[in-house]
Amino acid sequence: MTETKIYLEMRDIHKIFSVNKTKALDGANLILEKGTIHALLGENGAGKTTLMRILCGLERMDRGQIFYEGKPVTVRNLNDARKLGIAMVHQHFNLIEDFTALENIFLQRISSKCLTSCNLKSAEQEIGEIMKQTNLVLDLRKKTKDLSVEEKQKLEILKALYMKAELLILDEPTSYLAEIESEQLLKVMRNLKKLGKTIVFITHEITDAISVADHVTVLRKGRTVYSSKDEKPSFEKLAYLMAGETNVVRSKRRHNSQKILLKVDRLTLKSERQLIGPISFDIREGEIVGITGFTFNGAVEILEAITGMRKILSGKIEFQGVDITFKNIKERRKVGLAYIPQQKTQIGLSLQLSIADNLIVTNYEKFSHFGWLSLKELEAWSNRVVKKYQIKADSIWQTIETLSGGNQQRVLLARELEIKPKLFIASNPTAGLDLRSVSLLRKALLRLCEEGSSILLYSTDLEEILDLCDRIFVLSKGTLVEEFVNDSSVTKAKLIEAMLSHEKDSVLA
Fold it and tell me: How many beta carbons lie within 10 A of that of residue 80, not counting itself?
């Protein structure tokens, strides 16, 4: 007698958040088969993460049913989910930075009151066996703060496997990974499938979903609009199902100005793990300059130095012919710099404040008259911005923490773009965004350049770099190793070759 293929089913799931009356799920359905990879696709705010948080016991559904191996179950909390072998690796890691990788994993057993039956040494042996079986290679003695994003992903997966998880939910796991690192993660997922694990892969990356998934479910506005059976859906079909459109801006434009807007001269700085520089480059008016490389290449720190968020050891930064090396953040913003940081919710936004508050926090003087804010002007402007950038919210006074991750990012992008900066600096601005949001952002960036502004873009998405940039810098371990003028001869293969040729210790180990 063969075991039934249906492993878990979520049927007619409804969820309304009481804080803002947002309808997150409106009759969503999901069927999982044991030992398969199931991609869960949808736009920002479609309900993907909420549906999985319900399955993990982190949210309570208002209505619906969950069936595990054919029997109805109630998942009230995280412990109920763990008993069913369900674990979730969240988009934002849940790790203690000052602990080692081993200590972070071992904490899972302590929280489950298993301390009496295991110790750190035996835990290390057990985790070592898990790593051998799964090919998840990680230095367990390393401090978590010294791990790359890819290594932290591995650590979170090892945490789940250490707790005997049979169903792993991966929430946007490739969002901040370089292309080769993403491919490595997909290999890890395939290895886990071979070991009989079931995986739910929450993603916006349609190409990744098609590449690795056995089945695909698409959510739209809280409803299941598509669930594949045996057929392999096309990119175009999935894009249309997710967003109602497949058009994503992929047009480059050429700038003509030779006027230097930003000049970085022999910039040297220190990160938590390496010396960066000396780095020298310039950006001309109306130009899009891209930076790419593997994790810990130094790009994020360079962007922080240019925007005034990180101290430098030596060197000079000139903007429009003026030395801004020692100017503070406010002074740099005043002369025309805008910044989308790598840590968007931790640094770029205040989650407890409203959409309106976050939109004006760097530009409140615009709405201030004799020391008093004009609520009428503020509300009118904020509502226009919310509409322009298609931010899904019931009110401009809704707190940021109640928005989906993608809509949070739209608020940040809207704030920085609306000041009409002379230089727009961004670190992985489209990471975690759906197709519609990516298209919206790219159109806004191209429009900004047409108006004479310049863009300094750090991205691990090589296709994005090639689609948008006039020149491309490849960084490796704090050194600018190669510069490309982006013409038809520049390919992803060439960029990867440049990245690899300067990496003594492979990030793929």
Answer: 14
Please give the Cα distance from 391 to 440 (Å, whole number): 11
Tell how strand 198-203 and strand 167-171 pair up: parallel
User: What's the alpha-carbon Rg for the chain, to the nearest Å?
Assistant: 24
Six token digits for residue 280: 């020298």
Strand partners, 319: 262, 322
- Parallel, antiparallel, or unpaired: how do β-strands 275-284 and 260-270 relate? antiparallel
pLDDT at 117 over 60: no
CA 360, distance to chain mean position in Å, is 24
- Binned at pLDDT 50, 70 and 90, residue 382 comes out as very high
Which pLDDT value is given to residue 3? Answer: 47
Residue entry with tokens 């961004």 = 426
Q: Rounded CA gap, 306 and 24, in Å?
A: 39
Omega into 173 within 30° of 0, i.e. cis? no
Average pLDDT over every residue of 362-387: 87
CA distance 453 to 112: 54
Whole-angstrom distance, CA of residue 430 vs CA of residue 175: 9
Is the C-alpha dihedral spanning 427, 431, 432, 437 positive or negative? positive
User: Edge-to-edge strand order for the sheet containing 260-270?
Assistant: 275-284, 260-270, 314-319, 322-323
Over range 329-337, report the average pLDDT. Answer: 93
SS (H, E, C) 113-163: CCHHHCCHHHHHHHHHHHHHHHCCCCCCCCEHHHCCHHHHHHHHHHHHHHC
Is residue 76 within 8 A of residue 57, CB to CB? The reply is: yes
User: What whole-number distance in Å separates Cα of residue 321 and Cα of residue 176?
Assistant: 34
Which candidate, 213, 207, 212, places its Cα nearest to that of 236? 207
For strand 71-73 and strand 63-68, is the pairing parallel, antiparallel, or unpaired?
antiparallel
Residues in the chain: 509
- The residues, ordered by sequence, that sit 6+ positions from 159 with a Cβ below 8 Å of its Cβ are 87, 89, 104, 105, 108
Predicted pLDDT of residue 362: 84
CA 138, 480, 339, 385: dihedral to nearest 10 degrees?
Answer: -90
Alpha-carbon distance of 258 to 278, in angstroms, equals: 24
Residue partners of 377: CB distance under 8 A and separation at least 6: 367
53 CB-near residues (< 8 Å, 6+ apart): 59, 88
Structure tokens at 431: 């990471």
Q: Does 508 score more than 70 pLDDT?
A: no
Average pLDDT of the chain, as a whole number? 86
